[in-house]
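Hi Y.,

Following your request, here is the sequence exactly as I used it, all 256 residues.
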Amino acid sequence: MSELNFDVVSIHKNNGDDAPSGFIMDGYKAVGMPLWRTIAYAYFPVRMRDPNWIRNAPSWVFDEKYDIIAKIAFEDAVAWQKLRKKPSSEENPELQSMFEKLLEDRCHLKTHRTASEVDGYFLEIDRGLKISAGKPDETPPPDAIMRDDGGTVTYFEKEGSHGWTFQNASVRLLLSFLSLFSGLPIRDKTNLDARYDFTLEIPDQNSTGSELQSEGVSDDFALVQVALKGLGFKLNRSKVPLSLVVIDHIERPTAN
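Below is the corresponding structure, written out as tokens. Let me know if you'd prefer a different format.
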């Protein structure tokens, strides 16, 4: 398959309009958004965007608002649907390359990466691990979501709780899932390298305990951490390694 690129791109200064932004059926739409957010799409997982991860950028990258409409070609529609539906908390090299090329073409963007540490979490084993060996030959439920690494995740609801059942799942899949709630990078310190079956059951009540609430996390993420403890895991808030983006050169978007 040939490399996927945006076929038509329109960029202009925002005139005060506001509208939902993000991936659309035939491309990408950003209305009234500062350019740093689009730059972040080129270098980080979609779910993880922090302006502090972009260094040496002029102030207008954060302050000026632009409208961007980027469309894919009709013949690339099927490939685009697969690409945009990949987990938003994981690296997506093909998608990130599309945004990088868009910015190189329209803003003459040049960058390099630098190693750093940012706020995040380490996933560690706490005590009494309650997971079992994965069963690769077991047929998943019909509503299971199949992930690229072969694991599946199935959502469930029952009285007093809801959650997700993981089958033949790697720790990498669990980290990706947890990042959807945290919005911060999560690194693995469990040393678990096999496939596992387990259920992450979230209680419906908001009783999370003062220890978790003191970290300033959302109620949803606090409840997820309670469920993790029930499986024998824990998340420790810490500085974690991350490759930041340094702007070497950037210009305001060229005219359409």
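The longest helix spans residues 93-107.

Thanks again,
Q.
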